[in-house]
Amino acid sequence: MTTPVDQFRASYAILEQRVTTVLCTQVGAVQQLLEHLQSFSAAEYATLQANCTAMANNLDAACHRSSDPPNGPTLVIAQCVHTGGRERPRVHIDPIFLESALELCGTSHLAEVFNCSARSVR
């Protein structure tokens, strides 16, 4: 029995494959596409164009919103702490998060994630 996550992954893989196929076969083929426009009636072409535009707009809008918005405040796992001096601000990383993260990857990778030096992560 497949889980919803497995179904989502399978659907995503199919979508990715179809988009890749279209991009590889249709990009740059404008002249060929224009030759086939006469195959559609004006009403059908208008409907196809409106639907494609709507789908593209909906996909663009969907990438900027979450279907499952958080029901609490965002988690702060790292923050810059200004000491008032001339030196760079300290990077304070939540110790519990840092402990777990260090089990998964090294200080160099975490330094890239937090945009600080590896020494700051230690």
Characterise the protein shown here:
The protein contains 6 helices and 2 strands. The longest helix has 23 residues, at 4-26. 2% of the residues are buried. The protein is mainly alpha-helical. It has helices at 4-26, 30-36, 42-62, 95-104, 107-114, 118-121; strands at residues 78-81, 90-93. It has 2 domains: 4-62, no CATH class; 78-121, no CATH class. The two termini are 44 Å apart. Helix content is 60%, strand content 7%. The radius of gyration is 24 Å and the shape is elongated. Strands 1-2 form a two-stranded antiparallel sheet.
| Overall radius of gyration | 24 Å
| Percent helix range | 55-70%
Basic shape = elongated
Give the termini distance in whole angstroms: 44 Å
Give me the strand/helix succession: HHHEEHHH
**What composes the largest sheet?**
2 strands, antiparallel
| Count of spatially separate domains | 2
Structural class: mainly alpha
> What would the average pLDDT be, to the nearest integer?
76
Strand content: 5-15%
Kindly state the number of beta strands. Answer: 2
Instruction: Enumerate the strands of the largest sheet in spatial order, edge to edge or round the barrel.
Output: 1-2
Count of DSSP helices? 6
| Low confidence ranges | none
Give the arrangement of secondary structure elements:
Blueprint: H1 4-26, H2 30-36, H3 42-62, E1 78-81, E2 90-93, H4 95-104, H5 107-114, H6 118-121
Antiparallel strand pairs: 1-2
Features:
122 residues; mainly alpha; 2 domains; two-stranded antiparallel ribbon; 6 helices; 7% strand
